[in-house]
Amino acid sequence: MVDYAVIANNVSYRYPDGSLGVENVSLEIKKGEKVAVIGENGSGKTTLIFLLSGLLKPSEGEVKILGFTNKQIEEIRKRVGVVFQNPDDFLFNPSVRDELLYVPRQLGLSEKEMEEIIRRFSELFGLKDVLEKPPFRLSGGEKKKVGIASVLVYTPEIVFLDEPTANVDAKTRKLVGEIITSYNGTVVVATHDLEIAEKCERAIVMKKGKVIFDSKFKSIDERILEIAGVI
Q: How does pLDDT run across 150-203, given as a tens digit for each residue?
């Protein structure tokens, strides 16, 4: 029996103005799978990962995340991490150090464990010199690194990344690719960056809220990418 991280059945989502963001999507994501959701701006890829992560409730259909439904959102939040495209949407602590330790503190980790987290992740993401700075004073690339690090520190079972390479330098872009391939869990990344998408074994290609391709990344035909507007 295959264990699934996410199961979506006939899922649609309408925005408050009535426009359709995602239409009739059904898919299954296995535990440990690395999945790229590819599409141009406005294709619905961000809306889809928000639905698959439990951040949005479907207008129609059902999403199960690690066996839990939207009615069990607290259980989902303990196990799922989401990195938003715009870090300003979720960085709110007074310093980078506090941002990295926000969830570990909620989980009751010891001071020794939290200092190890600071040491390891500030080194990995090159944040040593900005630990005491407020996030709003960082550059866009630095904010993105803090956002990714603040999710990875608690090793969620599923990580959702929304355009993780937007506004970052080449070194950080390379690091994001390494994280996707090496992460010991399920990774779903929404992107129009094909070099990042190819780090995943599977691709879901979207156009105008619909899935137009769902298979191994290596089997994508260029025609599909042209239709999706990403090449």
A: 999 999 999 999 999 988 889 889 999 999 999 999 999 999 899 999 999 999
Check: CB of residue 153 under 8 Å from CB of residue 120.
no
How far is residue 95's CA from residue 39's CA, in Å, rounded to a whole number? 34
3 neighbors 31 (Cβ within 8 angstroms): yes
Query: CA angle, corner 158, sides to 119 and 205, nearest 5?
Result: 120
Q: Give the separation between CA 187 and CA 198, rounded to whole angstroms.
A: 13
Which pTM does this prediction carry?
0.94
Q: For residue 209, what are its two tokens?
A: 């809220």
Q: Cα separation of 39 and 228, whole Å?
A: 6
Tokens 């990995």 label which residue? 124
The C-alpha angle with vertex 46 and arms to 192 and 181, in degrees rounded to 5, equals 55
Banded model confidence at residue 2, pLDDT cuts 50, 70, 90: low
Contact 164, 148 (CB under 8 A): yes
- Give the whole-angstrom CA distance, residue 50 versus residue 60: 14
CA distance 179 to 48: 22
Candidates 230, 229, 146; CA nearest to 195 is: 230
pLDDT single digits (tens) 48-90: 999 999 999 999 999 999 999 988 998 999 899 999 998 888 8
- Residues contacting residue 13 through CB under 8 Å, at least 6 positions apart: 20, 21, 22, 47, 51, 56, 58, 59
Spatial distance between the Cα atoms of 21 and 73, rounded to a whole number of angstroms: 22
Contact criterion met (CB below 8 Å) for 45 and 206: yes
